[in-house]
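Example 3.
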Amino acid sequence: MANGTIEELGRRAVHSARALAVATTATKDTALRLCADLLEQRAGEILAANTVDVGRAEREEAGDTALDRLRLTEARLAAMAAGLRQVAVLPDPVGEVVEGSIRPNGLRVERVRVPLGVVGIIYENRPNVTSDAAGLCLKAGNATLLRGSSGALESNRAIVGALRDGVSKAGLPADALSLVEDVSREAAVQFMKLEAIDCLVPRGGHSLLDSVREHATVPVVIDGDGNCHVYVDASADLDQALEIVMNAKTQRPGVCNAAETLLVHGAVAEGFLPRAGRALGDAGVELVGDERARALVPGMGEANDEDYATEFLGLKLAVAVVDDLDEAMAHIARFGSGHSEAILTTDVRSAERFCREVDAAAVLVNTSTRFVDGGELGLGAEIGISTQKLHARGPMGLRELTCVKYVVRGDGQVRR
Amino acid sequence: MANGTIEELGRRAVHSARALAVATTATKDTALRLCADLLEQRAGEILAANTVDVGRAEREEAGDTALDRLRLTEARLAAMAAGLRQVAVLPDPVGEVVEGSIRPNGLRVERVRVPLGVVGIIYENRPNVTSDAAGLCLKAGNATLLRGSSGALESNRAIVGALRDGVSKAGLPADALSLVEDVSREAAVQFMKLEAIDCLVPRGGHSLLDSVREHATVPVVIDGDGNCHVYVDASADLDQALEIVMNAKTQRPGVCNAAETLLVHGAVAEGFLPRAGRALGDAGVELVGDERARALVPGMGEANDEDYATEFLGLKLAVAVVDDLDEAMAHIARFGSGHSEAILTTDVRSAERFCREVDAAAVLVNTSTRFVDGGELGLGAEIGISTQKLHARGPMGLRELTCVKYVVRGDGQVRR
């Protein structure tokens, strides 16, 4: 291990977190801009390090997706730098007085937004996560411990080196940001149990999330699956519905807020499904459905429960015809992952029932699930989309990287 | 097991949670009042059941504290009923629009408060927790799974029977509230891993909390230790300080927001500690301190690091003299449990630095740590005081038993 034991990195992060917590917004923004500059200035060095990682991955015959995620280019580095500069212009969540009141005995009670302290990020091969996550954590006043994968170690080391120098140049402790360079499985488990971490955010696939669920003893926010549904109600505007379904499925099928199942009310199935089937087929989407859907769309495959439970993350869509709103909501309750669920309807009662009764991070009416994203919902940037209920639900922006403390001011009040 | 497997109780709770989530405030309040009435009407039955539990505890030679916690009386039952009626008049957190805005593309985005779903409570021998916790969870629209200890099983069964009947009479599903009657250790661990539970709240001592930390895989909010400090700054109003220190230590020494350590600035130690030592001694408080404190208070014992780290929960206080605010804050950072920390000062800079830099659920200026309590801070009632940072920090009231979902309304918007 090159840079200290995990416990030692944890101690240094805790120590740095105190300086970060009281740093002014101006200082943090300066640090973010210096980090962005250094990423660009050291592009040659960072890309050379990345070439080492990519070369090893190629020798190990990694798949195209894995290689694409790992590979950095001038353009991707520029996007990382732009991301940091974007975070610098977002409002600082720290210090926000969330609420305040005066108690009958004269005590002034405020709830004030403060940093979490130390945020741990454990992630897979995408080196851009290194700067994206670090930038958001820094702006929210947190120290960050990063634990990337072995496959991206050289890239991460180069990126973190630049970021630490940027932080340091702004007068903040470099240890506000550290990379755990021990990439063994044992170190990953140790990381998930490190007491110094106030909040652990895993970014990656199922095996990482399962490992976190099994081993983590520190508080975690899970960026879970998105098995998202679009339900076309009996009263839907079918032209609008077609456009929304196409958008939710095909605009970017590989992401968590893309639609994976289309539910159609029986009363409009005949008028909608053949059209939708053609349009989706033309866009290269493979369709699987229940008996009633298959009767309306030639060439549609048979869907089983596993299909309805699957986040395809690609050009495949499960389809079911339902008798009414209740059946649609029951399907969503059974198979949904609590991410984003949309109803397309012109009936105000259907819309309101769907919004109230569907249990998910986001419910949408007459629009695409693709909007469930930090940028689109006005959070500026996000570190992930939480599908858990505690602390953060939906896109996690700067505010979700903070907590709140009570500040109580009196003048001698005692409790009777 | 008398009432179904834990998994089955979980399934029924999940099912009931859907009805609870859309129940009107009026229905929930009616249920709470019916529950209160039934607790009173069935006092004979409940007290008889409690007598069985107390008898067994006496035969097993339980200590006085344990017996006192377990024992119910007419007065305690009346207090439980009054608690439920109090919750009925609190504002309903469900449906609160936390924030809302219109995006540039016309999407209307709201964050709306909704119930968590199923709340699990695992607790020790105090049967009043059964109705207190159930009442708060019900008002917040959650189904509740209760897992009390073996020692209070008969009492809990009688109480939960009355509450289920009250809920049912109001037209809500009785399974909104269930008691896990399997009181084995295995069942406790199974409970901590039950997927049906959206939030687990443990109420009890260290061994329970340690077990939850070790075994729980469901999200948890920990009601942790309160190793609270009062720091008397150089500029403190010493008369006021004496009154606050006495209140923080002696008004109710057995609770988590009582003070456990007194820190005194060296400049006022001579003027304050001898007086404080006499007053505390007269109130029966045992004092232990560092060398400088002992030199000023005759008869003060010697304090070691373990004393400074201990939540005495009784009439004992650790004392230290510090050279300045920084040393006081360093002591708190080292030994504090992140619960409630007070500074007594007339210096605005000291007050502001303390509020910003001390990392705790609550920081207080010129008032007693005893005010860190749901009722005193205006939350109405609380289910515990969280010392963790995620989700809930400080007193957990009705709002902390909910989460937020995004509701996004459009008219055909798609993402480009």
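The longest strand of chain A covers residues 402-413. The radius of gyration of chain A is 24 Å.
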